C-alpha cells in the first residue's frame, strides 16, 4: 500500500515538473511583455513593476494586427481546406483504383516527405520569383498545398485501406456515382483522421515563418509571424514589443483550441482507436 502511494506521489511530482517545464517559456514571454527593453535585458526573469499595457498598444499598431490577423486566418483556413480536399480525394483514388502506376505514385509521395524544405528554398525562390508568382497570399495557399499534400495523403491512405469495400459496392448497386460514394459515405467516415490532419496543419501554417517570408513581400499581405518579426532588427531589438506581439499572436490559436477542444480530443481519440 505504501509503495503504491509512493508511486502516486512520484507521478504527481513528475507531472507537476513537466507542466512547469512546458509553461515556463510562456510565462517568461507574458512577464516580459509588460516590461521595457532595458528592464528585460537587466533581468528577464524578474516580475514587472506594474501591469502597463503600453507594449500591447504599440505592438498592435506597429503590427497592423487586424490586417495581419485576417491574412493569417485566410491563409490558414484556405490552405487547410485545399489540403484536406485534395489529399482525401487523392488518397481514395490511390487506394481504390488498382492501377500499377498508383503504387509508384504513392511511394514517390512518401519519399518526398523526407526532403527538407531548406534544400528547396533557393530553386523555389529563383523559379517562382522569376515567373512572377510570389507576393500573394493566394499563391502561398497553393504552395502550402504542395508541401502539405504528401503527409495528409499518407495519413488518409492508411485510414481508407481499413474501410470495407462492401460499403461502396452496396452504394453502387443503389445507383450512386463515385463522387456520391466519396462525399456521402467515405468522407464522413474520415472525420476522425480529418480532425487530426486539421490540427497538425493549423499549427504548422499558423506558426510558419519561413515559407511566408519567401513568398510575401508586401506589407498588406503579411501574416502574424511576419508582422511579429519586424520588432527584431539587425543591430537592435525591442524585446518588450516583440513579447507583446508574440502574446497577441498566441491568443487566436488558444481561442481556437478552447472553442473546439471537445471536437479536437474526440477526433484524436477516434483516429487513434481506428
Automatic annotation (TrEMBL):
Keywords: Cell membrane, Membrane, Transmembrane, Transmembrane helix, Transport. Residues 69-260 form the ABC transmembrane type-1 domain. Its main location: membrane. The chain crosses the membrane at residues 12-34, 73-95, 104-129, 141-160, 181-206, 239-260. One of its GO terms (biological process) is transmembrane transport. It is found in: Cell membrane. GO terms for cellular component: plasma membrane. SUPFAM superfamilies: MetI-like. It is a multi-pass membrane protein. Belongs to the binding-protein-dependent transport system permease family. This is Carbohydrate ABC transporter permease.
Amino acid at each position: 500500500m505504501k509503495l503504491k502511494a509512493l508511486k502516486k506521489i512520484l507521478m504527481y511530482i513528475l507531472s507537476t515538473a513537466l507542466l512547469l517545464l512546458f509553461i515556463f517559456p510562456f510565462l517568461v514571454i507574458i512577464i516580459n511583455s509588460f516590461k521595457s527593453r532595458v528592464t528585460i535585458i537587466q533581468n528577464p526573469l524578474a516580475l514587472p513593476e506594474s501591469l502597463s499595457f503600453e507594449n500591447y498598444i504599440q505592438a498592435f499598431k506597429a503590427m497592423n494586427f487586424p490586417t495581419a490577423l485576417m491574412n493569417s486566418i485566410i491563409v490558414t483556413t484556405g490552405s487547410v481546406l485545399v489540403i484536406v480536399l485534395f489529399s482525401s480525394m487523392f488518397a481514395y483514388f490511390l487506394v481504390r483504383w488498382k492501377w500499377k502506376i498508383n503504387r509508384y505514385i504513392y511511394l514517390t509521395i512518401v519519399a518526398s516527405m523526407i526532403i527538407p524544405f531548406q534544400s528547396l528554398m533557393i530553386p523555389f525562390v529563383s523559379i517562382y520569383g522569376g515567373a512572377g508568382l510570389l507576393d500573394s497570399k493566394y499563391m502561398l495557399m497553393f504552395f502550402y498545398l504542395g508541401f502539405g499534400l504528401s503527409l495528409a495523403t499518407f495519413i488518409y491512405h492508411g485510414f481508407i485501406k481499413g474501410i470495407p469495400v462492401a460499403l461502396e459496392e452496396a452504394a453502387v448497386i443503389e445507383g450512386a456515382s463515385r463522387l456520391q460514394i466519396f462525399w456521402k459515405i467515405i468522407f464522413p467516415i474520415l472525420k476522425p483522421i480529418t480532425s487530426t490532419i486539421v490540427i497538425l496543419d493549423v499549427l504548422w501554417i499558423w506558426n510558419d515563418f519561413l515559407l511566408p517570408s519567401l513568398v510575401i513581400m508586401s506589407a498588406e499581405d503579411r501574416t502574424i509571424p511576419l508582422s511579429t518579426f519586424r520588432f527584431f532588427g539587425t543591430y537592435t531589438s525591442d524585446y518588450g514589443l516583440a513579447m507583446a506581439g508574440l502574446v497577441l499572436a498566441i491568443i487566436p490559436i488558444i481561442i481556437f483550441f478552447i472553442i473546439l477542444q471537445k471536437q479536437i480530443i474526440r477526433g484524436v481519440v477516434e483516429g487513434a482507436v481506428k
